[in-house]
């Protein structure tokens, strides 16, 4: 058994991504951010859907098509459809922001 | 956007299962327990793998083959392989226990 909150990675020079479980079509990941944002002008454009929840900390996600900015705190979750462009605008510098993300593919046709 | 902790279901006569996201091969569920346990002699025996994390509260899971009892608190997570028999032995009566579970199937052969 492992814990999402302990230990937290000591070196957060970059965002920290850790695969926790999954198969080829499903991946569960822990993400830890601290003051990180996506690089200027960078947008995620993923082949998979993503369920994401913030468990600690605070973050802002930005979406395109339609434009939307969502502030997230502990417990807040949403599902990002495949190919909906999004970026991390902000995470709080005050404490680590711990996310749990589940990536899942559509059924084969 | 929704929140895992608010609102909590008011009526917890039984455990509360809420699908949050997924497709046929992947399901993300919120589970809320309060003093619940699996029925005496009941074992889950699932076709899918299950990643499960306790986010609030406290619980004990029991496994067979090999026998194992695991006490879980906030942030603790583990992955239960398909067909590993398990049951919820105990959840705290003092507060709601909030779980997040991700069920995922093996790749087709």
From TrEMBL, chains A, B:
Stretches that traverse the bilayer: none
Chain ranges of the Cupin type-2 domain: 45-103
Pfam families: Cupin_2
Domain of life: Bacteria
Protein name: Cupin domain-containing protein
Organism: Paludisphaera mucosa
């Amino acid at each position: 058994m492992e814990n999402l909150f302990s230990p937290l990675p000591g070196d957060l020079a970059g965002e920290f991504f850790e695969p926790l479980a999954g198969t080829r079509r499903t991946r569960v990941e822990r993400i830890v951010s601290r003051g990180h944002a996506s690089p200027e002008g960078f947008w995620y454009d993923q082949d998979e859907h993503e369920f994401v929840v913030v468990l600690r900390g605070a973050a802002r996600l930005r979406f395109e098509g339609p434009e939307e900015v969502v502030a997230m705190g502990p417990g807040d979750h949403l599902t990002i459809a495949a190919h909906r462009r999004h970026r991390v605008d902000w995470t709080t510098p005050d404490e680590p922001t711990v996310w749990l993300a589940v990536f899942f593919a559509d059924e084969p046709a």
